[in-house]
Write a structure and sequence with these properties.
This protein is mainly beta and 299 residues long. Helix content is 7%, strand content 42%. A hairpin with a 4-residue loop joins strand 1 and strand 2. The chain starts with 5 loop residues before the first helix and ends in a 15-residue tail after the last strand.
């Protein structure tokens, strides 16, 4: 056998290395990814806040949340907490906890470390009854995707007083929500309600609580109401007329107007309505299709 000279062997080895290097530089052929199964998006749930604002939160899974507040959306992740469920991200903290049939929540601004909430922006609540829905561990609110109508918005809504009831120290007024637009829309859940004085200023010390079903429909689940043009939906506002003298309350604050924002919307609509609630709170029911009178509870 003829032996290669050292120079020839060196050239041959260089050619082999070049061939290997060229082969390694070729990228692998892309593999067509298998389509991932898509789960239906979880509908958001609504929280009523003491300021009269509403916060809508979607819990797509057990480790994240999407929070909508004043027209902004915040993407949050779960964080360690001593109790309840805590989410942080996008500069805010969302902390919820269930107690005595109510899911309370606070929205806070994160501190410089972006890990701990330092300034409370809102204190909110919602019934934690499974029939109404709550966070990722409870039954969710009605899913509007089965309806073709878009959500009702403030500019196409008009409020009206539809009567009420009075009992021993309790008051209820029924509020009508009419679609004055030219297209049908859908409405459901708890509207965000704030009370205002005669100058249009919010009564900031007044809290709003959600009451499932109203007094004659205790525990009734949220329903979706389809409103054709000129049709109405209804909800109740209830309050105590007895001053809480044990807390130093002698005269209850007077409200001249209510400001209402439909669930999932940011455009409020107002109605001149005189209320004088005591104890610093009112109760609001979810919307319904009937205006039936609601008897007040005995106190």
């Amino acid at each position: 056998m003829r032996r290669l000279s050292p120079a020839c062997a060196f050239v041959a080895s260089l050619a082999l290395v070049a061939a290997c290097t060229e082969e390694a530089a070729v990228p692998p052929q892309p593999v067509e990814p298998s389509p991932a199964p898509t789960a239906p998006a979880a509908p958001p749930v609504s929280y009523a806040c003491e300021s009269g604002q509403s916060i809508a939160v979607a819990y797509p899974d057990t480790s994240s949340a999407r929070l909508s507040y004043k027209g902004q959306t915040y993407v949050l992740r779960t964080a360690q907490s001593a109790s309840g469920a805590r989410y942080i991200g996008s500069g805010v903290e969302w902390w919820t906890a269930n107690r005595d049939g109510t899911e309370g929540a606070t929205l806070s601004r994160l501190g410089p470390d972006e890990e701990i909430g330092t300034v409370v922006l809102e204190r909110c609540s919602r019934p934690s009854s499974p029939s109404v829905g709550a966070g990722p561990e409870l039954v969710q609110a009605p899913d509007p995707r089965g309806m073709s109508e878009p959500p009702c918005k403030g500019p196409q809504l008009r409020l009206s007083a539809e009567g009420g009831d009075a009992g021993a120290g309790s008051r209820v007024t029924i509020i009508g929500v009419q679609n004055v637009g030219s297209q049908a829309c859908r409405i459901h859940g708890y509207p965000a309600v704030a009370l205002q004085d005669a100058q249009g200023r919010d009564l900031e010390a007044m809290r709003t609580e959600q009451r499932p079903g109203g007094y004659s429909r205790e525990g009734q689940a949220n329903i979706l109401v389809s409103l054709a043009p000129r049709e109405k939906a209804f909800f109740d506002i209830a309050w105590s007329a007895i001053p809480h003298e044990g807390q130093g309350e002698r005269v209850c604050p007077k409200a001249a107007r209510i400001r209402v924002t439909a669930y999932g919307d940011t455009s409020p609509v107002t109605l001149d309505q005189a209320l004088q609630p005591c104890g610093g709170r009112i109760s609001v029911s979810p919307v319904r299709a009937e205006a039936e009178p609601t008897p007040v509870p005995s106190t």
